[in-house]
């Protein structure tokens, strides 16, 4: 039976009545400066909490704690490290509703989807603890009387910076790869949505040795920048925008030579051929926009829909009806399918792109504003928005919006549509819909993206690496490659006498 908004709101208020602290060196602490920042509910502007605003001195304290914990954690057997991570995943699942409530309130995503994020994080952690046993070196032939072998070793202190669109999913799941490979970790949580990660810190304090995991809240400009620039943090990972990725790369370079991995934005194409299953395409296009999960605030959303001219009108008509049927509502309502954007700044950005679409001559098919429900008037709600008659000269076709805005383009030549699909500086995901195997493989081969779906969108699969080409990132997430990226190689030459 679905839980009512009233019951969820009551339980949320109980959760919020706590002294929000960061985790540094096994202790739950305030910022040394005493500074805090406020987080508010994007669906009505109400106050949620004040959380610590970590400064450079807090970052340095976290680094020193992580350094002190590293030797013992590195030498802890892999079986024991894995057991602690699995124990953490179990505790996470036990409190999944609490984390889902906090994320729904903090971000505006539907609470049902956010509870699902907890289960997804647990699955990722389970995968990582299993595949970690495949992180190993090799023996090499030698031209002298000696043995040559390689081994994989942890970096030491790792810094990770995560985004706001799936706070508990990224906060929890992104612990796995650094920790299971023997590193200690400093996690900088999202400015806009820190609460679930700070609650998670209480679980981490119970399970892991002091200093192995450290959780910092604060702004990117202060806390994130200090973490990236710290000379003792040699491994940095960011999930965020292209612009933030560029700043992180530049800042890291001022402090030394660091391994920086980036999972960044996308302007992702979905190419629909004339022989595609129309009804499946409609569902795939709706699912690929991630309206049901995070209001289109996803780097992997397929926001450019290229429809062959022979199916263009039918797909557009059916897709419009499908998107109009999405239930937009209060994020704490278990029946809500689509919530609101995370902040005033994001709302202003998305609505400004809707204005740009109109200015550039695109045809607004549906959406373009707030829902008519008066109960939603105070929140950052935007209807699923579709523009047709879009071409690649328009800003809505070239720039990442990070919201529920879909651009529909018409095509009739396969070579030309692939060229258009690749004609952006992003290269994260892409999709092709066709019943013809040769066409599917040809398009998948020629799309300059790190991930391609054939007759699908949106779904991620355990063990399948997720990475971007061009400005969409470096390295990859989610597969065994992610674990390898938190290790460095050492070659050992053993002379035989």
Give an account of the 3D structure:
This protein starts with a helix and ends with a strand. It contains 18 helices and 24 strands. The protein is an alpha/beta fold. The strands form seven sheets. A seven-stranded mixed β-sheet has the order 14-15-16-13-12-18-19, sandwiched between helices. A six-stranded mixed β-sheet has the order 9-8-7-10-11-22. It has a three-stranded antiparallel β-sheet with strand order 5-6-24, with no helix packed on it. It has two domains: 5-264 and 475-491, Aldehyde Dehydrogenase, Chain A, domain 1, CATH 3.40.605; 269-462, Aldehyde Dehydrogenase, Chain A, domain 2.
- Overall pLDDT confidence: 97
Shape: globular
CATH topology of the largest domain: Aldehyde Dehydrogenase, Chain A, domain 1
Distance from N terminus to C terminus (CA atoms, Å) equals: 74 Å
| Count of domain modules | 2
SS-derived structural category: alpha/beta
CATH superfamily membership of the largest domain: Aldehyde Dehydrogenase, Chain A, domain 1
> Which oligomeric form is depicted?
single chain
In the predicted model, the low-confidence regions spanning at least 5 consecutive residues are none
Query: What would CATH call the class of the largest domain?
Result: Alpha Beta
Number of helices: 18
Alpha-carbon Rg, integer: 23 Å
Q: Biggest sheet, open or closed, and with what strands and sense?
A: 7 strands, mixed
Residues in helix, %: 40-55%
Q: Report strand order across the widest sheet.
A: 14-15-16-13-12-18-19
